[in-house]
Write a structure and sequence with these properties.
By secondary structure, this protein is mostly helical. About 80% of the residues lie in helices and about 0% in strands.
Amino acid sequence: MKKRIQSYIVFTSFVYRIVIYLAAPVILIGIALWTGRMARGAGMIIAAVLLSAVEVVSDQWLFGGIQTKDMEKLDYLKTSGRGMKVMKSALSLDLVRKFLSAALIMSICCLAELAAADGKAYGWYFQILFYSVAVSWFFSVLGTFISRFGSMLWFSVLLAYGMIILESICWGVFSASVLKYGYGWIYVLAFMVLGILVSMLAVKIAMNNVEGSYYDK
């Protein structure tokens, strides 16, 4: 596991680690807490939606354009026999890191909401917590997967806006369905499964392209 983590860290710059590991979570939690004071539950929704957008745009620093045919910035991997293994570990751990980030940020937001709820509607908040993690992670993975087919920042920004719109729609459907039918856990399971499937596809496609570049395919 230590080598896997080192493989991932190799691709992250100091600025990237400061922004994604520290600044972004603090800002998102701050926005959620501030919004939650005015509208209960809204803070977690906003944090979940914005987190997906942040993940999509920030991936430009990491693996932006890796799935394009003319990708050149990872050519140094070809000088090592472990290049492919390092790449696969980094891609996989990045997806795990996205999930852990969503879980941590949403959990802190949920605890803040529960503290203000005075023991009321705990079941509702826990459904929101698990759904927010699942849906935010899914759109983060989906957005970054698609963004890697392009190497321009504007492409990632447009995709981030698209993920915001789609995730907002999903939140509307989720809220309406839970209030009317109580099917919240079905949505949680569905987005977790979708997130896993897209994650597997993202790693496979990226690795195929990286391997193909060894033979100028």
